[in-house]
Design a protein that fits this description.
signal; 30-stranded antiparallel sheet; mainly beta; 54% strand
């Protein structure tokens, strides 16, 4: 009888729930609860259902019970209920399925204490909604959601009522839009009505900002917030506002154009109440596995009322803007192009940083940019020819001096080189037979360039520089002067050869390596000099093409000596001393000899003290002049390394060892020139570097002069060495630098360090940090520098410069962090630089307070900004006006 009843129910339910029965287990009869652990409806049974309003199978489950109302065609699911219908998923404490109206209704249920539990969660595709009550029509694909929280990109939308249409768009009533992920957000944008297009944008009507449940007057007539999921989108860039020496301003407002996934353009501008403005166009582009780059152009109209006021009142002021022109139109171009290197393919690289002389002074982002003495640019294409030792580079370079505006262009700059190859391989294909002459190698390099500058050298004005020449002329950079600029350029081609004569073993333990070098330069100008007794100056004549060359030879002898002392102590097992002595000989002729013709011995004047004529060797070329004086020098030096073998602290068996360096490098070198008539021994240079206690880096350098000096401070050919007075040499300079970087990681006993720490770069503006790591509880970096330099003679003195630097950070709590940076100068007895930053983690906001008490950027800075990149323009910045620039 029971089986007949079940069969009868199956036949009856199949007429009411055609798709629900297909592939499902049928629950109990009408209005009878099933007290089972879970009803999932999974079975191997598959029945073909007729087509209807339901597009696919509805899968359901409930933990407590499932009730059927057959006549009303309604199913009730209680306790951890879930529904799966295509790409839609619904979970809640209670779900109702109404097959008559094609709707799903989900709601919370009270627990034994009366608390509402089981908040409905609706998921379709990549969108998720959580609400107190959800009604969804699976036929029209429309829904109504009450008291809902939806996530769109980085933002969250809290709405009283939400309606969803078949285009997957939803409309909200009485909304809160925020990036704070708390149930009760710290801040939100309050908007009566809102429309959200998933993975695209969120649009609102009139809105205002609410912070800590306190409404603020900040808002606008409409809001547009892009929420792309996997692609960039165009949108408005909201400007920031404030006040500085250029007046009240709106900064960095504009529009972003997302052309496609690979290229985007940012068009922004600034406007100031005193009349100035700034426009900036910046484009980022990328081609995967090929290249990436950025190009930007900035135009600035600078109106300087500080200069007008200072001029009208005939007074001076400490404000740096008063030293600038009243009005100035400047521009700046930046272009960075970085390729992905691939074997056998050429690479194009660009790094452009150039513009008007005063642009960086007016639009600086920090002390480093303001004080930069030069800006350099280059564009190059480099390629190595496959299966050959040859490569070539085509380059254009430019440098710009900030203070004077002088520019130098090297255009073009061509280079062709051949890497080291065996000479025998160039003339024969016969395999090597290890003959001594088969060890000879050759390297070759040729470069051709045209160096153009807008500064006319003093020689072209018929005045020799060393004879109190007048300042050089400057050529304006414009199209009318292109021919003059080209004519004033220095054109040259330089060839260089390096011939290695092999590497040989001598006396079993020594390495002997001789070599020959030769270079030659072709220049478009050659000079001749003549002393004019009437003007008491040297006249310079240009005679045209010239050729300069130089050559030399050298041979080196080196070996390595090991010495080990076995201690067999509790921890120290042994100490090893590694010694690398080296000695080499080099020869170079005197290229000032008249037979070469590179220098001209010229009368340059008469010494008024002795009434004797003064002659000098004047170089006949602008550059690439070889050194003067015969050189026949013996160079010698020795490198030392000392380390210990100690037992590992982490090994209880005593069988594992580790190396501990005592001295990383101790280097001593000098030279003796046989060709000199006096002072043949060069100063002895000593350098040492090591690491103490694994955290302190020590670097030491000193120079010892073996010769005495006279009363004027000039070295004389008499050694300082005095055995009785224990004097070996004369100390001329010495530097000592100690640095220590401390953090909790520095005291870890295990060798494994986290590999996911970010690589940090120095901030351009120390008052506006880009990244703060709140996870490291503290860091401390100490730097001590000592420099000693002595000058001898009548006015001889000893200069001692001693500074100590301190920088680091401290996490006072999980939410508060302090960073500091300062340098104290013991020589002058003052603090040369100091700055402090205080950061507060406000969950969805960040706050920073910066204070610089001294120097160019002295003053304070307060910034409060939303943490989410979606609301990056939602920030408040306050700068003091105490610094030199009024910020």
């Amino acid at each position: 009888m029971r089986h007949l009843l079940i069969l009868f129910l199956l036949l009856q339910l199949s007429s009411f729930f055609p798709t629900l029965v297909a592939g499902q287990i049928i629950p109990a009869p009408t209005a009878v609860p099933l007290d089972t652990a879970e009803v999932t409806g999974q079975d191997s049974l598959s029945l073909t259902a007729p087509k209807g309003d339901i597009a696919t199978t509805i899968k359901y489950a409930a933990r407590d019970s499932i009730l059927f109302e057959v006549e009303r065609k309604v199913v009730h699911l209680y306790g951890d209920a879930s529904i799966e219908y295509g790409d839609m998923n619904l979970k809640a404490a209670y779900i109702e399925i109404d097959y008559e109206t094609n709707t799903l209704t989900a709601a919370t249920l009270p627990d034994s204490t009366g608390k509402e539990i089981g908040t409905p969660v609706f998921t379709q595709g990549a969108q998720t909604y959580a609400a107190k009550r959800i009604a969804y029509n699976y036929k029209t694909r429309k829904g109504r959601i009450s008291e809902v929280v939806t996530q769109q990109g980085e933002g969250y939308i809290h709405s009283e009522v939400v309606k969803r249409n078949d285009a997957n768009e939803f409309y909200g009533l009485h909304n809160k839009y925020t990036t704070c992920n708390l149930e009760h957000p710290h801040f939100y944008i309050s908007a009566p009505r809102i429309k959200a297009i998933p993975n695209d944008k969120v649009m609102t009507g009139p809105f205002n900002l609410v912070i800590g449940d306190i409404p603020t007057p900040l808002g606008f007539l409409f809001g547009l917030f892009p929420t792309p999921k996997s692609k960039r989108s165009s949108g408005v860039i909201v400007p920031s506002y404030g006040e500085n020496s250029r007046g009240f301003f709106l900064n960095d407002g504009g529009y972003y154009f997302a052309w496609n996934e690979y290229i985007g353009t940012r068009l922004t501008g600034d406007i100031y109440s005193l009349g100035g403005y700034n426009m900036d166009v910046s484009t980022n582009y990328i081609k995967r596995y090929s290249y990436r780059g950025n190009f930007s152009f900035t135009y600035d109209y600078f109106r300087n009322d500080e200069a007008d006021i200072a001029a009208s009142e005939s007074r001076s002021t400490d404000n740096a803007f008063s030293q600038l022109p009243p009005t100035q139109r400047t521009f700046w171009v930046r272009w960075n192009h970085t390729p992905v290197t691939k074997p056998g393919r050429g690479t194009f690289t660009a790094s452009i940083d150039a513009g008007s002389q005063l642009h960086q002074r007016v639009n600086f982002n920090g002390a480093a940019q303001y004080l930069a003495p030069t800006f350099n640019s280059s564009i190059s294409y480099q390629k190595t020819i496959p299966n050959s030792p040859f490569s070539y580079t085509i380059k254009a370079r430019q440098s710009q001096v900030t203070e004077t505006g002088n520019m130098t262009f090297v255009l073009p700059d061509l280079n062709f080189s051949m890497s080291q190859v065996a000479l025998s391989d160039l003339f024969t294909d016969v395999p090597s037979t290890n003959k001594w002459y088969e060890k000879f190698t050759l390297t070759y390099n040729v470069s051709a360039s045209n160096r153009v500058t807008n500064v006319v050298p003093a020689r072209n004005t018929s005045q020799f520089p060393v004879l109190e020449a007048s300042p050089a002329d400057t050529i304006d950079l414009n199209f009318r002067n292109l021919n003059q600029l080209w004519q004033s350029g220095e054109k040259s081609a330089i060839h260089s050869f390096g011939i290695g004569l092999g590497n040989y073993k001598v006396l079993k333990y020594f390495n002997f390596s001789p070599s020959i070098n030769y270079s030659e330069a072709w220049l478009d100008e050659k000079y001749s000099f003549r002393f004019d007794p009437d003007s008491q100056r040297v006249d310079v004549d240009t005679t045209g093409f010239g050729r300069v060359y130089q050559y030399g030879a050298s041979a080196g002898l080196s070996t390595t000596v090991y010495g080990t002392v076995y201690v067999k102590g509790k921890r120290v097992e042994a100490i090893r001393h590694l010694i690398r002595p080296n000695i080499s000989y080099s020869y170079r002729p005197d290229f000032a000899d008249p037979r070469f013709g590179f220098y001209q011995r010229t009368l340059v004047g008469v010494d008024t003290r002795t009434n004797r004529a003064e002659y000098r060797n004047l170089g006949r070329f602008e550059s690439n002049l070889p050194p003067t004086g015969l050189s026949s020098a013996l160079n010698f030096g020795i490198d030392n390394n000392i380390e210990m073998k100690v037992k590992s602290k982490n090994d209880s068996t005593g069988t594992k060892y580790e190396k501990v360096s005592i001295i990383d490098v101790l280097r001593i070198n000098s030279a003796y020139d046989f060709a000199r008539d006096s002072l043949k021994l060069s100063p002895v240079r000593i350098s040492m570097s090591t690491k103490l206690f694994k955290i302190v880096n020590l670097n030491f350098n000193t120079t010892l002069d073996p010769y005495q000096v006279d009363s004027t401070g000039r070295a004389i050919d008499r050694y300082v060495f005095d055995a009785r007075r224990l004097r070996v040499a004369r100390l001329t300079d010495a530097t000592l630098n100690l640095t220590a970087s401390l953090s909790p990681e520095a005291f870890r006993t295990d060798e494994a360090l986290p590999a996911n720490l970010p690589a940090l770069t120095p901030d351009e503006n120390p008052l506006l940090p880009e990244y703060i790591d709140f996870k490291i509880p503290w860091t401390l970096s100490l730097n001590y520098s000592l420099s000693h330099r002595r000058s001898f003679g009548v006015n001889g003195e000893t200069n001692l410069i001693q500074t100590v630097g301190l920088q680091g950070s401290l996490n006072i709590t999980e939410k508060w962090k302090v960073t500091y940076n300062g340098t104290y100068d013991f020589t002058n007895g003052n603090i040369s630089y100091a700055t402090m930053q205080i950061y507060r983690d406000l969950h969805c906001w960040d706050m920073s307070i910066g204070w610089t008490p001294f120097g160019l950027l002295r003053g304070y800075n307060l910034t409060i900004n939303a943490r989410s990149s979606l609301l990056q323009d939602l920030k408040l910045t306050k700068r003091s006006k105490n610094n030199a620039f009024g910020y």
